[in-house]
Here is the input.
Amino acid sequence: MDLDDKRFEQIINELDLLKIDTDRDPLKAQKGRRIFLQEAESLKKTVTKRESLRHKGWIQEIQSMLFVPRKERSPMVTTISTILLVISMILGGGGITVAAAQNSLPDEPLYNLKLLSEDVRLWASTDPFVQSKLALDFASRRAEEINKMLNQASVPSDAVQMRYNREIDQAIRSALKLDNEQAILELFQIRNQVETQLESMQQSRAKETSEMTPIMEQTRVMLRQYLSLLDNGLTNPDQLRDQLRLQDQDQLREQDQDQLRERDRDRDQTGTDVPTIVVSPETTAVQNQAGLPTEISTQSNGNGSGGGSGNCLNCTSTPNSQNKNGPNIETTQMPTMGNGQNNNWMNTATPYSGNTLQQPNYQNNNPAQDNSSGQSGSGSSGKSNGKH
Amino acid sequence: MNYPDEQSLINGAKSYDLSVLGMIYDRYSPLLYRYAMRLLGDDTMAEDCVAETFSRFLKSLQAGQGPKDHLQAYLFRIAHNLITDAYRKQAPLSLELHDSLPDDDRMHPENQTDALLQKHQIHLALKSLTPDQRLVVSLRFLEGWNHEEISAVIKKPVGAVRALQLRALNKLRDLLLMDKKENSYGSR
Here is the structure.
């Protein structure tokens, strides 16, 4: 007992009253001991495993996962399951975000995510049928977005309209990769949808403000031209395929010429001789004779009917003055070939203009320019005015 | 009976050596029973406390825990927690309510010796301490442990144990003296 304890001597003495040595019932003590040892034995059995069941290395870890169920919880399984859980949460979270983005409009933050998810879906599909369906579905979404924006009195951007255009284009191209019977069915569906969307946009004309009118008018013109194109495709899918192929070639040629022009400009500016490749009318004629009909062979004079005379159903191509041996092929309706009639589009990408999205000069109505391009032999369907 | 040192007992217990576990029970269960009996004052409750203490000890071994040293302190800590729980489960009593306690045979003054009555008052006074204070007082003055041993149980420094002891004794003195005064007034 220390010094502090002395102050509480009386209390400590009273506590001594509790120091009774009650005899413990020996039977109860024995029973308690027995129960304790039984419990210890049962726990010992569950803890100690047979040697063959113990995890002793990575081989056993793998075996335990694949073949032999073990009683012990494997640390590796725990780690893997944790990783899988984290990955699934991340992907699940991403999936939720993408799902949330599906109803977003172009002026909303998640819209780009929505477009990205659409691009991924389109890119991941290899079947033309699926591609066509997807592209048509996405085009339908663009139309809905444009209508919603009209209802909200906001102006749809050029980017949305261009994407809309591209998606219809993609739907048609994918449909044409199918055999004729299937392609016609698909084109028919695309036509119906385009027609519905056009009607919807025409009905919403009343809601348009002066700010919206130009872009909406462009969209309507685009849809009308698609309708016309689809009508042709339904009549003769092969002809539409040829048109597309030619337009693609035309586009490539234009790109080549642009490069050449740029190189010439660089040469003029630097004064150095840069070797150039001149695309002569003869070259074009050879290509034409090789089986590539339509406007390329006929437009080099610039004043001809213009192979790109989209809405000219009855016109025939003028024989090329420099390529008289070239085939004199009756041109068919090329709905959006950038002829004079359609060039009232104000910088709007025209479907099947040969440069679907890159066509730079739709409002070029100046025949003088066509003449010059014709003289140089570099005229293209997209640039000819198709005068009659 | 000569028992191995605590560390050997702990090692044997961790490998579930039944003979070692039996030795542990034989060595500590009487101490635990006595401690529980002194604080709980009931034979059945004290036996239950001992059984539950050893059961928890086994479960902690199975979970890979259990004591690293101071086996006795570890077991007394478990027992003390169980006793504290038992105190909490009992209907709250206070010294002020002493006169209105149930008038059963055991508590009736005619049937009680002064010592029993006094013992009851001490029990009530102990109940009014905090768990740590009660632990320090009971181990120090009932079981005769030194401060170092107690500090191993409550995992506090010796100075803190002394401070707990001082506060506990002060409180006990106040409670018991006040109770005596009330009794003396009542007897007049």
Q: What stands out?
A: Chain B touches chain A through 39 residues (CB under 8 Å). Residues 93-98 of chain B have pLDDT under 50 and may be disordered. The domain at 1-90 of chain B is CATH 1.10.1740.10 (Rna Polymerase Sigma Factor; Chain: A).
